[in-house]
Request: fold
Amino acid sequence: MKVFITGGSGFVGSTLTGELTKSGHQVTILTRAIRKERKLPEGASFLEGDPAREGPWQEQVADHDAVINLAGASIFARWNDDYKETLRKSRLLTTRHLVDALAARKGKETHLISTSAVGYYGFHGDEPLDETDPPGTDFLATLAADWEKAALEAKNHGVRVVLCRFGIVLGRMGGALAQMIPPFRFWMGAPLGSGRQWLSWIHERDLAGVFQFALEHTNLNGPLNCTAPHPVRNREITQVIGTVLGKPTFLPPVPAIFIRWMLGEFGSVILKGQRVYPRRLLEKGFVFRFSTIEEALIDLLR
Reply:
């Protein structure tokens, strides 16, 4: 299958590209600037273009059987009004431009696998959540719902649409784990806030596996919770990281007021969390390589 990827240069996209090419797929990665030092596996190539802007790159989309949309500014930053607008534009404009490009595929079997987030559900404390639950009303939930709505417009062109609602992606080359590990190196790892908030997570290799699963199971559509079957509390993942690194945690929790001061509105996302389960993936027979946080962190950190 020929696969077109936006956001393919990030740590999720890099892992996914490697897995797809190993399986025999041809991959085209849209990037704003092609740098000669970047290395790609055999079967993958770069195409220069800005997905947030219309351009000649859109003409190339029609040559592909599937599109994977990973593009979007990182949520791991201090949120203010300007950055929240950046979050919205980087997701919605990219998705709309992809959907417009997919119009040229009308009449051909085509697949769009578009990113979303478990933030879609809003905050529900200890309540378990799956794909049947409605969206929340906070900023992140509204953004995820609008993002999904933009992707679903592709159905008007006869495209099969899968919505991958990401949990926290744990990987070697970036993402949440890169933000979490440094304090532990200096024996300063500690829970955040109450430590009771849930963390719905997924190993990067399992996430790549979900995308391959979605490509292969052409009867699958709609939302998929891309989270491991065993979410954990913040206190638990803190303890496991310390144990795996040989840096036991003994400091008191980081005060919630400090986290909100550092991260603004995003601090509330860190302090509340969600308890999300991958009901549809499990029902369809997807098998996780790393279903527990211990298995995932031993693989990633050792």
Summary: The domain at 2-167+202-227 is CATH 3.40.50.720 (Rossmann fold). DSSP finds twelve helices and 13 strands in the chain. The mean pLDDT is 94. The longest helix spans residues 81-102.
